[in-house]
Amino acid sequence: MRRKLPIVRILILLFVCHYSLAQNSSNLQVHGDFIIDAQTYQEDSAIGATDIPETIAMNAYGNINFTIGKFYGGFRFESYQPPILGYDPRWEGFGIPYRYFGYNNEGLDITVGSFYEQYGSGMVNRSYWEWYLGYDTFYEGVRVRYQPTSGLYFKAMLARQRFYWDFGPGIVRGIDGEIDMAQFFTGLRDSGVGLSFGASFVSRFQEDQNPFLVLPENVSNGGFRGTLSKGGFLLNAEYTYKINDPSAINGNNYRPGQGLLINTGYSQKGFGFNAGFKRWDNMDYRSDRTATGFDLLINYNPAMAKQHTYRLATMYAYATVPQGEIGWQADLFYNFKRGSLLGGKYGTQLNFNMSQTFNVVRDSIEPPDFDTRKFYTSPFFAFGSPKFFEDINIEIVKKLSRRWKGTFTYFYQERDNSVQPVTFSGSNETVFSNIFILETEYKFKSTKVLRNEFHILQTEQDFGSWSAILSEYTIAPHWYFSGLWEYNFGNPDTENRDHYFSVYTGYRRGPTNIRLGYGRQRQGLLCVGGVCRPVPASNGLILTIQSSF
User: Fold this and answer.
1) Which residue, 106, 258, 450, 490, is the most exposed by fewest CB within 10 angstroms?
2) In this structure, is residue 227 part of a structural domain?
3) What are the start-end ranges of the H helices in 47-204?
4) Domains in the chain: how many in total?
5) What pairs with residue 244 in β-bridges?
6) Is the pTM of this model over 0.85?
7) What distance in Å separates the CA atoms of residue 408 and residue 340, rounded to the nearest whole number?
8) What residue numbers bound the domain in which 401 lies?
9) pLDDT tens digits along 120-139
């Protein structure tokens, strides 16, 4: 358990001093937010739910941020006592890991302490915080940002990364810059063309303590990017290159890494199209070469699949493969006009999405090149085997009357569980699933809305087929109620065709939201942007309190 009380005293002192100086000034601004997530656990052998000695687990945080003229600062208190099941047990403890102070004046911004940073799409550098994934990789050090003129900026940093209640062993140095050409060339601006370019470079230093290999102590990762837009057209691309970085993830392979991300699209009133392509090979980059899982990642592997929110559509969710993947995604939407054959009285919206992700091709070097320890070659644009993930979904949104609205969605998904085994799965093979979801919404009055979801997931793999019903009733602006029922009706083991019931009620008032629920929760995956956390089965009460100021 980590307690950082000296830091608390320092921050309180700084805050009080600045507050006292600003008593007669309107420059002081204070804002923040907090969340408390608490859950009780009781044993339920039918679904594999266990209890914990403490009976109650709780995750909580509170942010306080302030600005006084050209100065700003803040801190975040966190408490995991103990962490909610599914979070890494190394989170247990409480303290103030995140604290910062900064100065901003005439385009110059200097931050000391804790900060988050991203260069471009994040393939070179991205630190971020995702509370419900138990993921946090903020930097602790110094960052300088400078914008000498409109359309041009530079960033530089020197820091270490958060590692639960400590910091990783590597020192991370980075620089980034971007220029908006339309700000400097009136011809581009007058013609409505947007054109920008950017470049990034990051270097990690970590001492070589391996007694058998000579490991590079300074490992660099760099890239360049560009964006072109005109009217409804948009094209952006980013290429990255990482030098040899032998690590626990790649089996101490000295082969350099490469990444490419391309997105393009066109939209106008009632129609839009987007397409993307990604290649990621040996680009896993961490501030500790021995780290695994999602620990101490410096860069980010962008998701190349639509991120769904429906319950059963996320049962076999897409998860990025850090060792390497190649894939594409396409989106299309079209609005049928009111009064047309397919549009009807209120119009109809059609959305189509498809994505596929494969392994990269790895041609083994024979005999193995032990001198350089580069164990394979890889054609850059070749799609390999196996197919990691495929998702085809079609959504139809239709307003039936002034009070009724309906959405029908069909999903076809394939997920190779052998590549990234998940703890809830009963199979390490590829799962093929067809998912049908009907969502209805009925407005009794402007303040009372009933929303229902009806789900069917059909599969012959894993635990078989599922059904689900979700109902939500909202009484604006304060109250809402919901109930969820899931049933594993297709389980080959008839004795394990379990039911999962849960009910919730919530109250909103301004920025405050209080939510209380009880029920069974099935094992599954919680995914955000291709990063997933296994959620264990549980049975008990769930309380969430959140607010901001």
Assistant:
1) 106
2) no
3) 186-190
4) 1
5) none
6) yes
7) 20
8) 309-507
9) 999 999 999 999 989 999 99
